[in-house]
Amino acid sequence: MSWYESPILQPVYVKAMEVLGPIIGRTGAQLLLSLIESILIIALIFINVLIIVWLERKILGRMMNRRGPVYAGPPLLWGLFQAIADFLKLMTKEFFIPRRADRLTYIIGPALVVFAGLAIGLMVPFGEGFVGLKNEASLIYIIALASLEPMGVMLCGLSANNKFSLMGGMRAAAQMISYELPAVLVLISAALLAGSVDILEIAESQSQIWYVAILPLGALLYLITVLAELERTPFDIPEAESELVAGFMTEYGGMFYGMLMAAHYISVFVTSALFVAVFLGGYGLPFGLNAALEMLPPALASLTTLLIFHVKVYIVVFLLIWIRAAYFRFRIDQLLELGWKRLFPLSLLNLVWAIAALGVLS
Amino acid sequence: MEMWVNFGPQHPFTHGLWRLKVKVEGETVVDVEPTIGYLHRGVEKLAEKRSWVKFIPYNDRLCYVASMGWTEGYVGAVERLMGVEPPERALYLRTITSELQRIASHFVWLGAYSIDLGNFTALLFAVREREFILDSLSRLTGHRMTYNYPRFGGVARDAPNGWVERTIRYLNRIERKMNDFVNLMLDNETFLKRVQGVGILKKSVAKEWGVTGPVARGSGLKVDVRYNDPYLLYEEIGFEPVVEKDCDCFARYMVRIREIYESITIARELLMRLPEGDVMAKRVPRVPPPGEIYYRVEVPRGEAGYYIVSDGKDVPYRVKIRSPAYVHIQATKAMMPGCNVADLPAILGSLDVCLGDTDR
Amino acid sequence: MGYSSFGGVILKVIKKLAGPLVVPLSYFFQRPITVQYPDERLVVPKGYRGHPLFTLENCIACRACERACPVNTIQIDMEIKPDGRRIMYGYYLDLGRCLFCGFCADACPTGAIVMGPKLELMEWKREELVYDIRKFQKLKKELRWKPEKPVKRSACAHPENCIGCMFCVETCPVNAISVTTVGDERVLRIDPTVCSGCGMCVKNCPTFALTMTEYAETEYSEYER
User: How many CB atoms lie within 10 A of CB A115?
Assistant: First the structure.
């Protein structure tokens, strides 16, 4: 269901339309309300980003037999406000643009990366009635927007007048582009199974059985390509090791660096959400248990789906953090070889498997 | 298009303060030019102004990660010049502490290598296990890093009560925990792909450049001072060096891992056999008689040598220190050309250079 | 086809790909080994060479520590008077130059300088790192340092022998002996909490009026001349 049919917000919507309709016309009111709703979804994404940052630091710490942040925040509450403290610190740093850098691209680069992450996030269903924009072709839209991220990264690398930044940006772009293709093929195979390219439909058509059981190879492949798209270990070459310092992020400081970090975690959240929506059944329960949810009052059912969705996303995020703790970094040529020579044929195999499964199931 | 890239004096993965200029053509390394000297402190000159005993703490600070071996080198050399034999218990304690120091130093190498290659967990694991050894050594000698423990004619202090049992317990624990680490690194495809087949140093080339220690043993040379020229108690315990045949980074890595296991075994065996007695010889001359001596020891990084000239006075006439890492840094010229730029951390890490003893 | 079984191959592939994941997960469920530093501290073992501590107990101003130091960081201002008295005017140890090697503690014949366990030795200025006798006394009180032999403090055992030469007042490095005038008499007072038991006043008293006695906390030794 899209948001204006959701049980929580529908009365609010109706009231707002009544109030605003005569003032700015019906279409205007609808646009304004859509805008407000998008902002609410973005706020939800940011809250999740804060939680994921905290989760990452604590879980990664525990996996290395140490505590994560401890002191920031209310006492005995495990450093909950550390992300806010870091954010405030970055806000108060100097805002600078290197003298010989290209000013427009320097500013647009991080903005594009953040924008790509958020724009994808608007389409992902967080719960019954909690989706920003409902569209029949949302998967195609998501795939198209996902290729905006490497563009943003490349602009970041190009804009600073720095040899190493450039090479880092090129490497990051090459990595992201070569892992787009297997990701797209896997998503298409899931869309085949569902019979539509609408993310909501894909999520809802898993009410009997999740696609991770029908397409295990696809799920594994998608997990690996997600790691490469997000530039996390074991694929974190652009971030950590490029000739000298920090790859395409070398010349960024202060809030721009904060934006790039935020973009990283927004992408983590959004792509995990996509993984959950496509393979892990979205916000529903398997084996037809969704019927049990119908018995609850509609507002409560809606919130329960939100909770279920978040639990699943955090499980996927835990998996991503766990992989970060255990593996080493690939070399850039080994990484590209992995993408083209191994993942691409496997994703074609996965497509064939999906077609066969479709034939079997229907 | 050729380009000189500078891995400047301050760099995360050069492990120390030296400069490596790398000539790069696309992604391949064509030539390297190392520059050292940023940490030169004039230790050999200082030796000419300090008396024999007062110079002992300076040797700890040569290679600060592996200090016991270096002090043992100086003290052993002067003892030979003086003609003093330390008593049994002192010999046992010196050997045990040398082996414990070797374990600790290899853990530092392991942690630093892992984090260069991208994994933070193994660094924390290595540092955690090293804490136990440092705890044991600090109970014995009084300090965690620069021990100042061997003296002419024996050692400075005797082991406190319960030290032997505690150390054996710690060694057992470390041996058990090494399994964790075998699971994390040796079964890990991402690690093996970075490390196998990289940084080949053929046997003949290794012999020409004069590399020693784990770098040489990883290339198939059976070179180990504890085997070729035994000192302390190594002849008694029948020491066999660990040698690997493939000459790449993985072989050097395996040599060091096996050395950790071997050192644990040797230290534990010697601890259980520790005899009673004095820890200091009865008559130790104040200064050695005139003469000269060259004495070699096996520090964790290779072979260290002390060439000491005495003319009967209060202060040494000349102390010349041979450092293994000095040679290994030069050997990068043999190992690096032809490799990928992204392999540089793997190769530099496997050489395990410590700039303290290179620059002295 | 050369594989033992299909299931075996799958298991091997899974072990190879997912094998390294076991160790971090096992750490996840263990208690962290972090020692939260300012609130919890590790106990320093006995005999730790944290810093030199000049306690002044039984010091005979022989200057052995000054000679034993490899970096010449100890500086002692002392004087040997023609009649054999040893007076120590100052003792300076620069912690900035100190190697913490422990040679001074090894060389001291009476145990006046030992190695103490304190770890946090930071100061704001470089000059404050030079420890003189007063700073050492403060450090000694802070660490609540007790010597291994029984504590002895100087006291006047034979006040009838005292001739009022005030050699003891001049000798004391910590100014534990003070003189006040009551009427036309001088009262000399030894403060046992300030006295550090070096024993120089005892050695320098020409009439053997002073001795070192075991220290009971509430005694003041006061004598008149």
Answer: 17
B357: in domain: no
Q: Which three-class secondary structure string do you get for A201-232?
A: HHHHCCCCCCHHHHCHHHHHHHHHHHHHHHCC
Contacts of A64 in chain C (CB under 8 A): 24, 27
So what's the ipTM on this one?
Answer: 0.83
Q: Check A326 against B124: CB less than 8 A apart.
A: no
The amino acid occupying position A121 is G
Mean pLDDT, contiguous 10-residue spans, chain A (362 residues): 61 76 75 81 88 88 84 71 84 82 85 88 78 78 85 84 76 84 89 84 80 86 87 75 62 82 88 88 74 72 83 91 87 85 89 88 75
CB contact under 8 A, C34 and A63: no
Element (H, E) at C100: none
B178 with B148, same domain: the answer is yes
Residue A21 backbone dihedrals phi, psi, to 5 degrees: -50, -55
Q: How far is A310 from chain C (nearest CA, A)?
A: 22
Q: Which of A65, A70, A327 sits opposite C27 (nearest CB)?
A: A65
Spans of all domains in chain A: 44-361
B139 and B273 belong to one structural domain: yes
**Is B120 close to A64, i.e. CB distance below 8 A?**
yes
**Rounded-to-integer distance, Cα A272 and Cα A289, Å:** 23
Residue B358, in any domain of the structure: no
For testing the chain A interface, which of B6, B14, B110, B120 should be mutated: the one with the most A CBs within 10 Å? B120
- For residues B171 and B26, state if they share a domain: no
On the 0-12 / 13-18 / 19+ scale of CB atoms within 10 A, C10 is: exposed
Residue in chain B nearest A244 by alpha carbon: B7
Q: Are residues B118 and B238 in the same domain?
A: yes
| Same domain (yes/no): B147, B25 | no
Helix (H, G, I), strand (E, B) or coil at B291: strand
Chain C residues with CB-CB distance to A66 below 8 A: 32-34
Among C10, C21, C22, C30, most A C-beta atoms within 10 A, so best to mutate, is: C21
Q: Is A61 on the interface with C (CB under 8 A)?
A: yes
Give chain B positions within 8 Å (CB) of C48.
138, 142-143
Task: Assess whether B18 and B60 both reside in one domain.
Answer: no
* Residues B29, B82 share a domain: no
Here the CATH number for the domain that contains residue B68 is: 1.10.645.10
> Are B129 and B189 part of one and the same domain?
yes
Closest approach of B307 to chain A, Cα-based (Å) = 40
Dig out the tokens for B282 from the structure.
Answer: 């009865």
**The dihedral of CA B186, B187, B190, B193: what is its sign?**
positive
Instruction: Name the residue among B170, B198, B156, B153 with its Cα closest to residue B348.
Output: B198
**pLDDT tens column, B142-190:** 888 888 899 898 898 888 888 999 999 999 999 888 887 877 888 788 8
Other beta carbons less than 10 A from residue B122's beta carbon = 28
pTM recorded for the entire structure:
0.87
Residue A21 touches chain C, beta carbons under 8 Å: no
Total count of domains within chain B:
2
Partner-chain contact C32 A326, CB within 8 Å: no
Give the residues across from B19 on adjacent strands.
B35
Q: Enumerate the residues of chain C whose CB falls inside 8 A of the CB of residue B156.
A: 102, 106
Best residue in A62, A64, A343 for a mutation probing chain C (most C CBs within 10 Å): A62
Provide the residue range defining the domain that includes B4. 1-34
Return the beta strands (E) in C34-176 as ranges.
51-54, 74-80, 86-94, 113-116, 130-131, 152-156
**Looking at the domain assignment, is residue B178 inside a domain?**
yes
Which residue is it, tokens 């002067």? B78
Measured between CB atoms, which of B118, B124, B190 is closest to A65? B124
